[in-house]
Amino acid sequence: MSFYEVVSGYKDFDFNGFLSSVNSERVRVILSNDKISDMDFLALLSPAAQGHLEHMAEKARRLSLNHFGKAVLLYAPIYISNYCINRCAYCGFNHDNSISRKRLTMEEIEQEAIELSKTGIRHVLLLTGESKKHSPADYIIEASRVLRRHFDSVTIEVSPLTLEEYVHAAKSGIDGVTVYQEAYDEEVYDEVHLSGPKKDYRFRLDTPERACRANMRSVNVGALLGLSDWRREAFMTGMHANYLQDKYPSTEISVSFPRIRPHAGVFEKVSGVSDIQLVQTILAMRLFMPHVSQNISTRETATFRDNLIPLGINKFSAGSCTEVGGYSGAQATEAQFEISDGRSVGDVCEAILARGYQPLFKNWMSI
């Protein structure tokens, strides 16, 4: 059984009917329980649950302190190539977009690493556009070896790899994989992925499991909120994380909540997700899976991110640049998307400390 069978089981489920049937009393009963079922999790995403956000926040804060303490792990992305052969309607790297394309050499990657490491960042996320011609697995692995000279943890967000490629990557020192399904709704997924390998819904959906099978230390999943109904996408994200954590308990599973940001090109069918709806998603996810890490990136504003710290977020990107070559500043390209929180790493640390939490630069290293 793969997660595709789980997704398929909900294909004809009446999400709107269920969500509209949830009343305030049912939410109160769920919040009084110690364990949250799948349907309880969905109920906490309902309109009725919005009247209980304060109670949800109190419980989420307590659970977060129990499992993660008052600590927020910092990391930063590093883009090394933006060549892409996919035509995704919502992405600045879309093959059809007229942006400058670049692939960094190993020497340029080292310069990026030197500049980023000066900020104190010890955990880095390596990103590329999805082109196996310009950024094949061997290029990514070679780049990760350069980055490991400067960082304690190197994780990747690149084209979905085969099991054999993930095994090779893990043995080479890459310790984590981030892959977003973008849209769990298979019809929406097909609609927004116009052409390219990424159009293969099943191959992408099974990617996190291949990474787990390859013994990656950490795997991060999520949906791009704004492509489809946020409640359904949030629910399937939670189900995906829960499936992986149950099946691969030795892998650290985490969840991200990216919302669509302005980018090169125009995507007009954005299904809006408000701040309060995103907060509800984060709270419901924490109550459903108290032990799963939750990550919020610089897509969100500084004030909003700071307010999420006590509510269950325990991973922050900081000092981020989404341009290829952006840290060293030498002929950087256009960004994949506009960031909202442009604070330096030092400013982010001060904000975390002001909330009574500890910014962590490192919580793991290979030996």
Automatic annotation (TrEMBL):
Keywords: 4Fe-4S, Iron, Iron-sulfur, Metal-binding, Oxidoreductase, S-adenosyl-L-methionine
One of the GO biological process terms: thiamine biosynthetic process
Protein name (database record): 2-iminoacetate synthase ThiH
Gene of this entry: thiH1
GO-annotated molecular function: 4 iron, 4 sulfur cluster binding; iron ion binding; short-chain fatty acyl-CoA dehydrogenase activity
Top-rank EC class of the record's enzyme: oxidoreductase
Residue span, Radical SAM core domain: 70-299
SMART domains for this protein: BATS
Keyword Amino-acid biosynthesis: no
EC number(s) given by UniProt: 1.3.8.1
Coiled-coil portions: none
Tree of life domain: Bacteria
Cofactor(s) required, per the database record: [4Fe-4S] cluster
The UniProt record lists the keyword Iron: yes
